[in-house]
Design a protein that fits this description.
This protein is about 65% helix and about 10% strand. It is of the alpha/beta class and about 475 residues long. The chain folds into 3 domains: about 210 residues, no CATH class; about 80 residues, Single alpha-helices involved in coiled-coils or other helix-helix interfaces; about 120 residues, 2-Layer Sandwich (Heat Shock Protein 90), CATH 3.30.565. A 6-stranded mixed β-sheet has the order 1-5-6-4-3-2, with helices on one face. A hairpin with a 6-residue loop joins strand 5 and strand 6. Helix 7 packs antiparallel against helix 8 and helix 9 runs antiparallel to helix 10.
């Protein structure tokens, strides 16, 4: 996954580059501009400017959650009604003095309570989830392109049935109920503290004026207490608002964007798209090697063969001319060697296999037209696959810098990042930093998709921080034992 974080946004917008390639035009999220994704608690300070506006947006958001919570509870209430009817229908024959219902009436009730009400519940739950996704987009800029429908080739009636009564539909009911409960708790707490506290304080001020005009000193106690406690409650509510908003967004992000079935579908999209791009990249590389060999090394080898043939023909008759031709052949052989090295550029070098990144990265840096500083801090060698991916990332990044960045210097760093085994083990972190123009865009043909494919193939993470005019920092976290 590739990410871009830029200043001036509420939170890095999460966009999955692989999904962008499959669904061009989709706006970027967690799942954000350009994707590891910083997954800290969301904040809206940079997006809305002044602190009072930030607090106002947060309070209004929570109040909206409180109002929507009543709607989100409706699917669960409909299912409770259906379950209650089932309970009465099952127990009614054994209850005394219960009027017997006709078969037609029971069939009608069954259709209503076992089909129509559950269908209405799941459809309303899907609508609730859609509303939550739109709120995450409009307020926090968190957007996710939808995974493809795995049932797209099924029969329409079957697909409609699964849309209403499938696993996703019932999951939406659960998500909507959880969202409603959180909205009631978080929105209710803010409403009680901010709205009621502020209203109580204002009402107490009016009452205080009335008491001072017509009342007695003893009547001042209650208004004074409310005047003191009201602003305190408002302050506590305002302090709680950002944390409540953060927990709400984090909850819905997990429920709506990171549910197991969504992660599986997204992973399938990643695998499919990256596989196609890897095939295209391999074919393009094959054509490049074939073209360079045909147009370069092959022609030089043909010229070398002709020169040696001429030298052989002149050895006996004109040894001096033959010696000159042999000298020319030596020069041409060196040019062929240089040509073959250029053809092999980017392929797995021998020095990487024999000596590791510590020796291979300076070789890659030496071919760059931009001055490069290499800083390698590795106590031991990672797996050969991790070294190969890291070398490719550095070579491609240096090529991008030379072609697009307009930088005057580049720094390449490689180090080992310790992580517990339960999180996948240690990482090989490659960082390429330049002082160029910034504004790296995967859609601009800068090779970022190819880098993402190579890193993602070993379950690594590629992050790009490239604010316009401030250079670019490319970071690749590659599993140490990839």
């Amino acid at each position: 996954m590739v990410t871009t974080s830029c200043p001036g946004a509420a939170e890095p917008r999460l966009v999955d580059v692989s999904e962008q390639s499959a669904h061009h035009g989709a706006r970027g999220a967690d799942l954000g501009g350009f994707p590891p994704v910083p997954r800290g608690l969301p904040r809206v300070a940079e997006a809305y400017g002044a602190p009072w506006r930030v607090r106002l947006v947060e309070v209004l958001h929570l109040m909206t959650s409180l109002a929507l919570a009543l709607f989100y509870l409706l699917p669960a209430c409909l299912l409770v009604v259906s379950a209650t009817w089932v309970g009465f229908a099952v127990t009614a024959p054994w209850l005394p003095d219960t009027p017997q219902r006709t078969v037609g009436r029971l069939a009608t009730d069954a259709v209503v309570f076992l089909l129509l009400l559950p269908a209405a519940a799941t459809l309303l739950a899907r609508l609730a989830c859609r509303i939550q996704r739109d709120r995450l987009d409009n307020v926090f800029g968190i957007v996710e392109t939808r995974p493809p429908d795995p049932l797209a080739d099924d029969d329409r009636l079957l697909r409609a049935w699964r849309f209403v009564f499938g696993r996703d539909a019932w999951s939406s009911v659960v998500y909507g109920t959880v969202a409603a409960l959180h909205g009631l708790l978080a929105g209710g707490a803010v409403a009680l503290l901010v709205v009621c506290g502020g209203a109580a304080a204002l009402g107490a001020l009016v009452g205080l004026v009335f008491v001072l005009v017509q009342g007695t000193p003893a009547d001042l106690v209650s208004p004074l207490i409310l005047v003191a406690l009201g602003p305190l409650c408002v302050l506590v509510g305002l302090r709680l608002a950002p944390h409540l908003v953060a927990t709400e967004v984090l909850l819905h992000r997990v429920l709506l964007f990171e549910a197991p079935e969504v992660r599986i579908r997204r992973r399938l999209v990643h695998v499919q798209d990256s596989r196609l791009r890897m095939v295209d990249a391999a074919e393009a590389e094959r054509r490049r090697i074939e073209r360079d060999l045909h147009d370069g090394a092959q022609q030089r080898l043909l010229a070398l063969s002709m020169t040696l043939t001429r030298a052989r023909a002149r050895v006996a008759a004109d040894p001096a001319a033959a010696l000159e031709l042999i000298t020319e052949a030596q020069r041409e052989s060196r040019e062929v060697m240089d040509e073959l090295r250029q053809v092999a550029r980017g392929l797995h070098p021998r020095v990487l296999t024999d000596h590791g990144l510590g020796s291979a990265l300076p070789v890659a840096a030496g071919r760059s037209p931009v001055p490069v500083r290499v800083d390698v801090e590795l106590d031991e060698r990672p797996s050969p696959r991790a070294e190969g991916v890291a070398y490719y990332v550095v070579c491609e990044a240096l090529t991008n810098v030379a072609k697009h960045a307009g930088a005057s210097r580049v720094t390449v760093a490689a180090r080992r990042v310790a992580r517990p085994a339960r999180r996948g083990g240690d990482l090989l972190r490659i960082t390429v930093t330049d002082d160029g123009a910034g504004g790296a865009d995967p859609e601009a043909g800068t090779g970022l998709y190819g880098l993402w494919d190579r890193v993602d193939a070993v379950d690594g993470v590629l992050a790009v921080h490239s604010p316009p005019g401030q250079g670019t920092v490319l970071t690749a976290d590659i599993p140490w034992e990839a």
